[in-house]
Amino acid sequence: GQVRYSVPEEAKVGTVVGRLSQELGLEAGDAEARRVRVVWQGRRAGVEVSGASGALVVSSRLDREELCGKSAPCSLRLELLQERPLRVLHVELEVTDINDNAPLFPAARKNISMAESSLPGSRFPLEGASDADIGANAQLSYTLSPSEHFRVEEENSNSRSKSLFLVLTKPLDRETVPVHRLVLTASDEGRPSLTGTMELLISVLDVNDNAPQFNQSVYNAVLPENALEGTLVSRVNATDPDLGAYGDVIYEIDNIVPASASDLFSIDSKNGEMRLKGALDFETVNFYELHIKAKDKGLPPLSSHCKVLLEVLDVNDNAPEVWVTSLSVPVPEDASVGTVVALLSVSDRDSGANGRVQCSVWPTSPFSLESRFLGSYSLVLREALDRERVSEYEVEVRAEDGGKPSLRARRSVRVPVSDVNDNAPAFSQAVYTVLAPENNAAGAELARVWARDPDEAGNGRVSYSLWEGVSGASVSVGGWRPASSYVSVDAESGRVWAVQALDYEELQVLQFEVRAVDAGEPPLVGNATVQLFVVDENDNAPMLLASAGGGPGLDPFAGRVVGSSVEAVSDSGSETLWAWAAWGAPAGQVVAKIRAVDADSGYNAWLRYEVLEPRGKGPFRVGLYSGEVSTARALEEADGPRQRLVIVVRDHGEPSRSATATLSVSLVEGGDKALTVAGSSSSGLVLPAEGGAAAGSASASTNMWLVVAICAVSSVFVLALVLYGASRW
């Protein structure tokens, strides 16, 4: 709001000008806590806000004449700014006049020359006194010391000032009184009244009894304040009816009001033309009163006086001025629309349309200007801010007056935007796919995740963690295990490292979630999923399984791993078991099948079978990928009674791993000899003897064992067929 206070000039320091408790709602002692202070617009005066009482008090000497000169009323504009909370009270302070200045004449003595031929009623202009006060305190009246020849007369003309004349009331006689000494007293109408005096020294002259006379007593002139030096102000004209030198008129400037303008004007002594000698300034003085004297060349010279009243017109020669009276920065980016950022004061020393100022702000977004009082503006927030988009604004307040052409002023206001935690960390990828080889070292770096938070300082500082809520994996041994048992995440760098060596045979895929949390209040969270695929390495050699023998009358055999090789052993526990094949067996007859598995996967588990020994073209071969041992050609007696095969099983890994199997194949005849061999000991083949009784008993024994052997071999053969069929299935 706006309030008015008044205070007399010369009031004592500490005098209370106004109580602010009602206007601002202040209690005693609140002014200092709420940071209430005075902000001046233009001229300054000695008042301040008392921190103890909260009242507006006089702080130093107040002189109305020094502050406002002759202006009435003497009104000073100021703002009472309360910063906590932000409020502005516009105050108009009127300094009232007291009668503290006595009338003052331009000089203590005035010399006047008068011809003794002057007629009663003749008037001689006098310079009146001036009083710096205003109103009744500046209303002057004049009295003259007692005299039978003179009196003082005041005349109100249509000009802005009164004319003072010394009037002759009785003819002069130089021979009787050559010099008259009088005292002119000026009194104001103040209470109490103050006076000033000037001595009049009147010399009575003889001869030249006609003074020059102006064709008008007052000349009016008007000039714009930007008039150039040498511009004609006015031309005065006076005539003297005397002849000769007594009729020659000389012009001169007798007096100028204000006195500070004495060097501003010149007059041509012969033709009476007045011209400018300097520059005019409407804002300093807008009205001049020049007293012109015309005198002749008589001895003594006679003179007359006139006035030239010059009015100065305002031109638009002053640009507006913009001040920042309060600035509340930085502005948080979540500040609401309508928040006041700054208070500004705008003024223009020109008058009328030249002094009317319009303000705007550039850029137009996100700020605007609001004005509720003349010359006072508020810079307010018009749109929501986003520090991540614009962290600082350079706002320019532009002021333009109404002159033709208009003048402009600019004031830049820097408005930084402070950060709030309004952005959650965001990962560069929603899903990270990581390939990690198995058998890695514990502590090895598997991947790096990275999240960006556009906020600053703590609001943008990101820390990483493994979220246990949904992170884990099902393993082949032990069921479900949490992801933290395999990996860990560095809180600062986002480095994902292995807690232990990974084993593809135990874990193929691990999926877990990484969280990024900023340090804001409250903290915001971002998530990313990491899919870790364990890449298989060839770290497992092939392992031989039980295989079924082929061919007529053969028993099954099992595989046993011994170091890096596998040997075939019999059910009876003997060290070596022979597989049997009949002489004359056709090519392609399956003798046995080697079976092996590899715990790895893919190429690392793809197995191939090769005959390592004997090298070259033997009677047996092995299927490259099936592991079936079969005859390469028809078996002959030349092949010998026994064949020893060393079969190697290799995978396709780099480097490849292998296992070996040793298979001994006994070659027998078909029929009875095959059965005899089947019943013999494992140390060798026992063939029947020929001739004698021994042959008979041996034959009987052989028949019994033959029946047993046939039954046993038949049973084993049927079982072998079943197992072979199952393995093929």
From TrEMBL:
GO terms for cellular component: plasma membrane. One of its GO terms (molecular function) is calcium ion binding. The keyword Transmembrane helix applies. The keyword Calcium applies. It is found in: Cell membrane. The chain crosses the membrane at residues 704-726. Potential calcium-dependent cell-adhesion protein. May be involved in the establishment and maintenance of specific neuronal connections in the brain. SUPFAM superfamilies: Cadherin-like (SSF49313). The gene is Pcdha6_0. This is PCDA6 protein. GO terms for biological process: homophilic cell adhesion via plasma membrane adhesion molecules. It comes from the Eukaryota. It is a single-pass type I membrane protein. Keywords: Calcium, Cell adhesion, Cell membrane, Glycoprotein, Membrane, Repeat, Signal, Transmembrane, Transmembrane helix. Its main location: membrane. Residues 6-105, 106-214, 215-322, 323-427, 428-544, 585-690 form the Cadherin domain. SMART domains: CA.
